[in-house]
Every structure is written in C-alpha cells, then in structure tokens.
Amino acid sequence: METKKYIQISQPCMGQEEWEACRIPIFSGWMTQGPQVAAFEKLFAEIHQVKHAIAVSNCTTALHLALVAAGVGPGDEVIVPAFTWVSTANAILYCGAKPVFVDIDLNTFNIDVKQIKQALTLKTKAIIPVHLFGLCADIDAINDVLQEHALAYRVPPPGTTPMRVAIIEDGACASGAIYKGRPAGGLGDIGCFSFHPRKSVTTGEGGMLTTNDDQIAEHLNQLRNHGASISEEQRHKGPKPYILPEFKMVGYNYRMTDLQGAVGLVQLKKLRGFIDYRNKWAQYFSEQFSEIPWIKTPVTPQGYQHGWQSYVLLIDESKSPVSRNDMMEYLQQQGIATRPGTHAVHMLEYYAKNYNIRPEDYPNAKTADQKSMTIPLHNMMEEDDFKYVVEKIKEIK
Ligand SMILES: Cc1ncc(COP(=O)(O)O)c(C=O)c1O
C-alpha cells in the first residue's frame, strides 16, 4: 500500500520574504545584535503590549536571566509546574536555587493553582507559571494566592525579609496568546519566549524577555551582553571611540544575531495569521474528536485565546482500543508524526535522584507524561492533511 506524504509534528512556515530579509544583515555587514534585532524587539513589544522586549539566544537563556534579574540565588526556592520542558527547571539550577514542583491541572496542562499554597515557604523567591502549549496559566488566581501568602507573612519571622515572590512567565510556547484581554508577556514581572522551530514563529533558535519595568529592562539588557553598560551598536554610533563599556556585573553572551532578528521580524508580522489558522483547525480537531470516548481534547477556558503552539490530546487507556504508545506507532506507520506533550520533569533521573521525588508525588504530571499525545498542527499543513489526521485517528478501533 502506498503511504501518503509524511506529516511532520511541526514545520517552520518560511519563504521568500524571510530569505530576502537575510540579505539586510549579510550585505550591511552587521551580523550580531543590531538594528534588525532592535526592530524585532520593538514589534514584539507592541504586539505583546509591554514596555520592553529584549531579545536573547533562546528561551532557556531568557529564563536564566529573568531569574538572575529577580535576584534568585543559592538558598532560594522557585516554584515550577512538574509538567514542562526540562529547561524551565534547569534555569533554576543555573542560579543555585531549588526547584519546588507543583502538580498540574489535567484540563489545561498548566500549574494547578490550588496546590501552590502548600509549596510556598519563606524561601520562595519566584514562581514560573508555564503557558504550556500556548495556553496562558491562570495568572489572576496565582496572584491571589501570592497576595494571601504575602499577607500571611506581613510580619516575617526574625531574620527573614518580607516576601515578594516574582512572577516569571514561561511563555516559550505562547507568543500571541491572550489571557482575559491581556497578551502573554505582561502578565507577571518578566516574560520569556522561544523562537525554536517548534514554535509558531521561529528564528532557528531565539528567545525574548518582556517587562514593563524600566530598571529590570536595563538590568536584562546588560546581563545579556556580558554585563556591559552600553551595547556595541551604541558604541559604534557614539562620538567617543575611546570609550569602553563599564562592567558592573557578571553578565553573559546571550545575544541574538541580526540574521535571526531579520527573520524574526518577518515571521512576527505573520504571527496573528499563523495563530488564526491554527485556531481554525484546532476547533476542527476538537469537533471531530468530541464523540470519541477515549480522547480528551484540549480545553480553552472562557476569556482565553490559545496560541496553539501544539494541539495535545489525553488518551484514556481504560477506554481506548489500544495503548497510547501503540497508537503513536500506528500513526507513524500511516505517515503522521506524534509526540508525547512534554515530560514530567520530576520523573527525569536527575531530579528524581537529587530531590528524592517519586513519580506518584505529582500524579497528574505523571499521567500527562504517559498519556498525552501531540498531533500535527502547523502552518505548512493543508486541509487534506488535517482531514487525513482525523481519518486515521478515527480508524483506531
Ligand atoms: C515550556 C518551555 N519552556 C522553555 C523552553 C526552552 O526554549 P528554548 O528551546 O528556546 O530554549 C521550551 C522549549 O521547547 C518550552 O517548551
């Protein structure tokens, strides 16, 4: 039997415009962070309705810098959902702090707000709500829990300082996502985004930090560039060629290149169209699967606009004809790529061993790890592809 073309789990949607955009840095000779990155940042800030957007090399480095800017260091604890990409937790380790996991809500795959209170301690310095697969975490409810906690500790025990828990959004998957009328990126103190090729808009690798706070923005700006007080571009344009930057802090080279900035700028102009297209087909999937008793389709709560980085199903193996893994193998044979949603970080060897965590300590994260299935939803797919995916899933009996 002849198999249809292979439908990838994700595929960047790029073409002539992105190709042409690369000519600008190539022919100008300005390759590292420069005018293209600045234009990319400006548009990103506009779209996400934030005062500042600061481009970096990827979202993992964005998370690292966000935690540094929030003052996270050894002895501190940072709350993180147990079901996320490993680097959300790794970034906490880069700062010498301790990740404290909280289970997720299986309806949204996001942090279960009801369980945050029990994870808060006097050492909690920050929380990283992840907007997983493009759906914003319930930031208002998280704020309420933190507020209550701050009130509870208004008179802190001797030797401790009053509490202010920073909210760092992991919006790696959530460019363009909206929460109760407000775009991701301005919902907490600092937002972090990814432009990895599995995201809606891509620059190959790439990341963005967002904030409405001028001082934090300036700190992040310097941290990404070795801690330098002024950028190469400023020095290049400046009148005093003998001036070297001042270095008042230990920084990193986490800059984005102007080649990436040029591509990102073109991609970003297409973001809304990309999401609308994904939304249309996500609705189609959800309608088509609504009658299948062993499929739980993704939930978008009232007032949220999903960014649809991924479309992730949950398989109820007590009702399904075959296991999730067999289903994934079958679909692979039919020319359809699938992936588990992401992983339960607390079950990964490093975390399980070093923090002595059992898989069942976060049961929903464990279920999501073992029973979730991402199916293809991207902007290179055509009507036939979406219909083919539905047809093949319906054939599983
Ligand atoms: C939730 C989440 N956080 C962080 C990251 C890291 O992003 P990057 O690959 O840009 O470092 C990813 C990437 O897939 C992610 O899905």
Describe the structure.
The protein is of the alpha/beta class and 397 residues long. Helix content is 36%, strand content 13%. The chain has 13 helices and 13 strands. The strands form three sheets. It has a seven-stranded mixed beta sheet. A three-stranded antiparallel beta sheet has the order 7-6-11, with no helix packed on it. It has a three-stranded antiparallel beta sheet with strand order 10-12-13. Helix 5 links the parallel strand 4 (124-127) and strand 5. The structure holds pyridoxal-5'-phosphate. Pyridoxal-5'-phosphate binds at residues 58-60, 84-85, 87-88, 130, 170, 172-173, 194, 196, 207.
Strand order of the largest sheet: 1-9-8-5-4-2-3
What share of residues are in beta strands?
5-15%
Number of strands: 13
Number of helices: 13
**What is the CATH third-level topology name of the largest domain?**
Aspartate Aminotransferase, domain 2
| Helix percentage | 25-40%
- Which small-molecule ligands are present, each listed once? pyridoxal-5'-phosphate
Features:
about 400 residues, Aspartate Aminotransferase, domain 1, single chain, Aspartate Aminotransferase, domain 2, three-stranded antiparallel sheet, alpha/beta, binds pyridoxal-5'-phosphate, seven-stranded mixed sheet, globular
Brief summary of the model shown:
It is built from 13 helices and 13 strands. It has 397 residues and is an alpha/beta fold.
